[in-house]
Amino acid sequence: KMAGDSRFPDVDTDGSEKSEEMEIVVNVGGVRQVFYGDNLNQYPETRLAELVNCLSGGYDSIFSLCDDYDPGKREFYFDRDPDAFKCIIDVYYFGEIHMKKGICPICFKNEMEFWKVDLKFLDDCCKAHLSEKREELEEIARRVQLILDDLGVDASESRWKRCQKCIWKFLEKPESSYPARVIAVLSFLFILISSVVMCVGTIPDLQVVDAEGNRMEHPTLDSIETACIGWFTMEYVLRLISSPNKLHFALSFMNIVDVLAILPFYVSLTLTHLGAKLMELSNVQQAVQALRIMRIARIFKLARHSSGLQTLTYALKRSFKELGLLLMYLAVGIFVFSALGYTMEQSHPETLFKSIPQSFWWAIITMTTVGYGDIYPKTTLGKLNAAISFLCGVIAIALPIHPIINNFVRYYNKQRVLETAAKHELELMELNSAEGKAAGSRSELEDLSREGKESPFYSSRIKVSHSDTFIHLLSEEKHYRTRLQSCK
């Protein structure tokens, strides 16, 4: 009976109009689009293709696919994002989909799922953008989860586990408390003091002469060095004991740097007291001196407390391709110009270019615009070759600099955005939790009211606010967005 309703279009004897000739109107967020069945039926599993054959199924079939329907105009209404819809319908005409600039990739993915269009139709460039956005949300979720884990206290854990977690948070997360920030500052100062002592200890006027006439560091500087090493050792041992994953901790790059900064002190101390009995004293002193040079590794400990150094490391890591191009350009230029320089300078009786391998050094300092002047051309052609070489060197060095700077700026801005987003999510969670408690208290008051008084306090309902950057990884519930909630 529903199929024969006069408000519906005429149907044939099979109860459905010929889908190839059928014309439907779709209104998405106030934007009307006209479609024909032959276009939509190219992808029968999509929502728009299902609209073609839903009229014979009655109201239940129609409203399972759309939000509203006008039988007179044969117009289907959807409360979705019209900008995203304009991109999605390209699949029916071009067989692929491109996202417009400014549309949130996660929201666009949700729109594609609503219209039942497979993600395989999304162009590769847009898939990369979607993957990047998904990684950002996973990183935000990971940061929020770490903060929640730090705030949460599991009563089932043993006292040692709770103490271990407290020590780890105290040493590894300066933002967790004021004492943790003080410890981080102290650690930073010890690194600076140790580095300064290492440099000052090499000044001859501050060194002392031992009984054998050899110069050695001043005892005061030696005592300061011992105190710094004691702090580094205690810090490393406590972090190792409190680490939740000790194997990952031991193999971490920064922790390996910590070991390299501490180990030379104890090895040199052992060689000084015990090595003299096993080998000659001169060999012991040479070994100790070589180990002391390894103390420069402690300067890399500053990266643990400096987000700028961490960002620089990541930017260089992401710029391996550009750095490889730089080295390739320089290698080719060094080989070509050193060979030309050697050939052109052979006619001069006082030439400084004795061989092509020796000319490599001249090509390196020329192309990098250092120019020590220890080797220089004396012929006119040699000088012309040198001028061309340093001009090519400037160009070769300048080409990869811009991508490297872009990587640095992009990663730095991304980290700031992720930190802000994580704090925003935590604030929303706290707000929702507080409103949930208020709603629970209000429910108790309503139960206690026997007369059923109607007042603004009792009749109002708290509206829980949701973030437009809601992270699905933090909740098992599905949150569907309307077009008004879509991230533009």
Automatic annotation (TrEMBL):
Belongs to the potassium channel family. F (TC 1.A.1.2) subfamily. Kv5.1/KCNF1 sub-subfamily. Residues 181-415 form the Ion transport domain. InterPro entries: Ion_trans_dom, K_chnl_volt-dep_Kv, K_chnl_volt-dep_Kv5/Kv9, KCNF1-like_BTB_POZ, SKP1/BTB/POZ_sf, T1-type_BTB, VG_K_chnl, Volt_channel_dom_sf. This is Voltage-gated potassium channel regulatory subunit KCNF1. Residues 24-125 form the Potassium channel tetramerisation-type BTB domain. Residues 7-20 have a biased composition (Basic and acidic residues). It is found in: Cell membrane. GO terms for molecular function: voltage-gated potassium channel activity. The gene is Kcnf1. GO terms for biological process: action potential; protein homooligomerization. Regulatory alpha-subunit of the voltage-gated potassium (Kv) channel which, when coassembled with KCNB1 or KCNB2, can modulate their expression and their gating kinetics by acting on deactivation upon repolarization and inactivation during maintained depolarization. Accelerates inactivation but has relatively little effect on deactivation. Coexpression with KCNB1 or KCNB2 markedly slows inactivation. The chain crosses the membrane at residues 182-203, 247-269, 323-340, 384-405. Residues 1-20 are annotated as: Disordered. GO terms for cellular component: voltage-gated potassium channel complex. It comes from the Eukaryota. It is a multi-pass membrane protein.
